[in-house]
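Practice problem 4.
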């Protein structure tokens, strides 16, 4: 495929390397001459020096005939303009990186529709979602997350004593924002219907909102006492704020240590249920004064890698397990992954790596994205973006669509958020549909939405 990457920061450089290794025809756009020179020495790709906000630069890079453009600079406004211009010039698919401010503003303004952008990706929010996945302690393990962590996939196995055994899904009265996506009974895999009766030993894949998943797991496996976990978070940058947004006062007892006093005041205003401490978590005395050793989890998420490592070492020395940290520099991430266990660090998250993995999902010539695959590719979670100006499916309620057998609508991703739809929700233009489909049913669902793509 013919792909353009704009911005050779950590994320852009990492992704460009992956794309070249997979054999794509890659052109990169970068203003910084030192970054251009370093990239040209290490990666076999064409480099165009300039700004993606310049039409001449985009044309020189081949935007009118490109399959995909990824605007990955550190400035949201540059990414918006670059992606929008590339779309106007003829690029088939455009993706833009965004940060926390734009992330919040998307709930009140449809940037995707206004600028003609297919997808937004935030490395910091993806890193926060990965940390939240590790921190949370539900009754079942999280297999994967989609739509910026608002849709979760978990697996449960029904025990003999489960109240769900012998009941149909309809009789169970499952939470409205959760679906039983896959049922595996011995070697048979299916997408269950409302009249499907559950049996002991059934392996279920549940998909839905975090709250819906929690309720569904309790219903299927029985009530288990869950204490509020005590979490200490060091740093209130983009990743830190992302982590805070995944929790509430009912789930966790959260303490944030932040070295910037103005940021502490902002935290107090935005998250009144959080205990905020002004200081540096690299100092043992502060950790002792704040009884950090009583925490269940310690997370270091500042913008400074050295501070993150040192604070985690201090927390591990005090006996906190697990300790988690965010690492931005690629050389640090590799070394720490090898020796993390020895240092007492259980989880290392790199925004660069998680963003690279996410962005590679968009590199496809298919009209859909594959988000997740069940064992042996028997079922897939796919994403369809509805872009046609008109379609008979627009403004149609979910319950009125004639869905093919073996297909389940899991989520609708919109500029103002993601929902697990009810039967009364409507399909709209620019919706991104998250669909679970048996592999044998995928062609049928693509045919259903062909006029909408």
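Answer key:
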């Amino acid at each position: 495929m013919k792909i353009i990457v704009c911005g050779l920061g950590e994320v852009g450089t990492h992704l460009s390397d992956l794309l070249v290794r997979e054999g794509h025809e890659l052109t990169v756009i970068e203003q910084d001459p030192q970054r251009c020179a370093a990239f040209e020495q290490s990666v076999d790709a064409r480099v165009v020096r300039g700004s993606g906000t310049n039409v001449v630069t985009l044309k020189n890079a081949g935007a009118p005939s490109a399959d995909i453009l990824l605007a990955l600079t550190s400035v949201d406004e540059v990414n918006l303009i670059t992606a929008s211009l590339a779309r106007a010039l003829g690029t088939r698919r455009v993706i833009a990186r965004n940060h926390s401010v734009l992330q919040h503003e998307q709930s009140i303004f449809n940037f995707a529709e206004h600028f003609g952008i297919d997808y937004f990706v935030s490395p910091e929010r993806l890193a926060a979602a990965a940390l939240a996945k590790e921190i949370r302690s539900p009754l079942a393990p999280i297999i994967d997350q989609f739509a910026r962590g608002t849709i979760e996939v978990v697996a449960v196995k029904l025990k003999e004593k489960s109240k769900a055994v012998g009941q149909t899904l309809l009789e169970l009265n499952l939470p409205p924002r959760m679906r039983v996506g896959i049922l595996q009974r011995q070697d048979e895999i299916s997408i269950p219907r409302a009249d499907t009766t559950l049996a002991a030993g059934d392996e279920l894949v549940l998909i839905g909102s975090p709250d819906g998943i929690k309720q569904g797991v309790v219903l299927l496996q029985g009530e288990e006492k869950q204490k509020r976990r005590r979490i200490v978070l060091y740093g209130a940058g983009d990743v830190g704020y992302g982590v805070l947004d995944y929790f509430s006062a009912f789930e966790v007892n959260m303490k944030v240590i932040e070295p910037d006093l103005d940021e502490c005041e902002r935290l107090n205003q935005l998250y009144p249920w959080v205990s905020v401490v002004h200081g540096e978590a690299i100092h043992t005395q502060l950790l002792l004064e704040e009884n950090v050793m009583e925490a269940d989890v310690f997370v270091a998420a500042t913008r400074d890698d050295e501070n993150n490592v040192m604070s985690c070492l201090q927390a591990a020395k005090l006996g906190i397990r697990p300790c988690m940290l965010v690492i931005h520099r690629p050389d640090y991430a590799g070394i720490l992954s090898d020796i993390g266990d020895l240092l007492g660090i259980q989880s290392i998250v790199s925004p660069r790596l998680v963003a690279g993995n996410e962005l590679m999902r968009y590199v496809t010539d298919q009209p859909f994205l594959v988000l997740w695959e069940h064992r042996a590719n028997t079922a897939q979670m796919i994403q369809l973006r509805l872009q046609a100006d008109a379609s008979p499916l627009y403004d149609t309620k979910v319950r009125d669509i004639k869905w093919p057998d073996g297909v389940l609508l899991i989520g609708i991703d919109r500029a103002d958020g993601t929902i697990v739809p009810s039967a009364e929700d409507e399909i709209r233009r620019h919706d991104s549909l998250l669909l679970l489909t048996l592999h044998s049913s995928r062609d049928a669902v693509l045919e259903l939405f062909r006029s909408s793509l």
